[in-house]
Structures are given as structure tokens and as C-alpha cells.
Amino acid sequence: MAGGIITPALINEVTKSGGLGSLPLGYLSIAEAQEAICKTIALASKQFAVNLFIQSPIAPPSKKQVAAMLAYVNQHRLSIGLPSLLEIPSWVEPDMDELLDMLLKEGISIISFTFGILSHNKMQRLLEKDVFVMGTATTVQEGLALEAAGCHAVIAQGYEAGGHRGGGFVAGQSGGLIGTLALVPQMVDALHIPVIASGGIMDGRGIAAALALGASAVQMGTAFLTCEESHASSLHKHMIMDNPAESTCLTSIFTGKPVRGFKNELVTMTEKNFSEDDLLPYPLQHQLTKELRSSANKLGHLEYAGLWSGQGTRLSRSIAVEHLMAILEKETVVVLSQFKNNLR
Ligand SMILES: Cc1cc2nc3c(=O)[nH]c(=O)nc-3n(C[C@H](O)[C@H](O)[C@H](O)COP(=O)(O)O)c2cc1C
Asked: Is 2 near ligand 1, meaning CB less than 6 Å away?
């Protein structure tokens, strides 16, 4: 979960308890990513994974479109005391070959990615070094494309999931809005590699359900945001703990890509004033609204904050990761044994 929420301590606790902690490298430069990896290696007693964003080239928006969005976002910046932006803050996407060089040098052996597929040469580099590679899919078609590219496992990300949708990278497909319950078994039937269920899984019932659907593992995000080791702001944690699932929505207004987070004034106002086509493509919209969102989050000002969350809000718990992991295991065993007893 990119964005400064995941701490080495959180990863270490997940990994120590038998899970696979994942260090997010999205939004980071190569130097920042390396620093985060070294800090995590220094603490982690076991292997952890890293997660990458695969950025595809974008068509540059027109000057008129940029000016309209800039003026709109500046209005909101001023209202919380931020100065106007004269242009969209720049961002240079890390060179993927250099990033992979660094990951291999640091001994990273488990990599997942989202938003696309690594190119053939880059996949081959990882496979030759025996790196375990996982991609994110929101449709069976995307899962098949990841399998064909050589991934060892596919994360099937359902509509319920918090954060960005990882799909939309297969030509002619806009990315799916398919719920986890429908997506996972169809993915399991179509693929020959393990499927990792993701989206709305918050407790042992969710884990047992995913296993019953044929998943080999689950990927959980929101459940960890409210943990003691998470660096999510107190506003973010309270929003998850105190709000129902229907408070979240899927919107592209924050970053230019569909993301599930809490609906706020920025979402409703933007939707009223602009169409999807007026928004800038990712990462430009992200760069444009980034400081507004993070300052609002720090100030406890929900209306402009971008607080990602899945739909399982009422199932969240504010506890230490070690405790959560122990409870998840216990709950899963109880649900699975209840199934067994009911069948007798
Ligand atoms: C705050 C947040 C940040 C996320 N960032 C990433 C990311 O950097 N890379 C990624 O592959 N998925 C990311 N995701 C999506 C998760 O990997 C996962 O699919 C999702 O959390 C599962 O749904 P759940 O939140 O209902 O458990 C993020 C999710 C959240 C909530």
C-alpha cells in the first residue's frame, strides 16, 4: 500500500506471523525505494515482497484541459491556505531497468506489480534470477495475460478493494468492476497458476470464503490500515473504523485512475463540475492534487483528503499486527472446521 502508510515494523510483524509483508515502491524514486528496502531488511527477520507500479505512456492533455484543472484545484488549495500552483508538479517515473537492477542487487526475490505487465525482457530478467513474480488482474482476461507473460501467481482484485484498481491494461478492456466472489472462482477455473484473492477480505470468514472459491492465498489491505504499526493518519483510521461501506466510492478524481476511497466534498464537487474526460491522466491528476490531499489529511480536513479504503470498514480492528494475524488464523480455522462439522 503505497503512500507512506506501510512501515518496516508492519511488514516485519506480518512476515513474522507467517504472512508475506509487501513493501510498496510506487511513488518512490529509486534512491527512496532503496532506502525503504534497506530499512526493512534491517528489521525483517524473513523474506518480504516489494510492489511496483507499471506506468504506461500517456497521451498529453491539451493546454486548455490542464489550465481548467489547475484553476479548479488552486481554488481548493487557497481555501486551506496553500499557495496557487503555476504548473503541475513534475514527476519523473523511475527507469524500470535501473529499478530492477537495484532490486536484484538488494536480493529481493518476491515482486508483485499493479497497473500493467512488465515487458517481456524485464520479466525474463526476473525469471532468470528465480524471482517469484505476481501481477494484479481485475478480469479473467487480464489474469490470462499475466499468466502468459510468465507470472507465478495472479492477484485477483475485486471491486470491493481499497486503493487503486490494478487493471485496465489489456487492449480493448477498460478494467473490470467485478466483485471478489464472482472474480476469484472464474480466475481459478481459467488459470493454471495460483490465484490470490483480494478485495473486502477482513477476517477469517473472508479468508475461508476465498479458500472455498479456490484461491491459494489472500491479499489484505484495509484490515492493516487501522493497526497500531500503520502510519495512516488518525483521520484515516477514524474514517475506516467509524464509517459504513457505502461511504467509500470508486473515483478517478484524486489521481486520474480509478481508486476506492472515502467520498468527500472534493469528489462530489468535481463530479458535479467535470466529466471523466476532463480529468488529467494518471500520474498528472495525482501530481496536481497530491499536496492538497496530503495537507488536508494532516490538518484533519476530510473534505480534500484522499483516504483509500476497501468496503470492509465495519470489520476493521484497531490492534497490533501480531494480534490481528493470530486472530485471523484462529478465525479461519474455526470457520473451516465449522464447514467440516456441518458436512458430517
Ligand atoms: C491505502 C491503500 C493503498 C494501496 N496501494 C497499493 C499499491 O501501492 N500497490 C498495489 O498493488 N495495491 C495497492 N492497494 C490495493 C491492495 O493491494 C489490495 O488490492 C486491496 O487493499 C485489497 O482490498 P481491501 O483493501 O478490501 O483489503 C492499496 C490499497 C489501499 C487500501
From this structure: yes
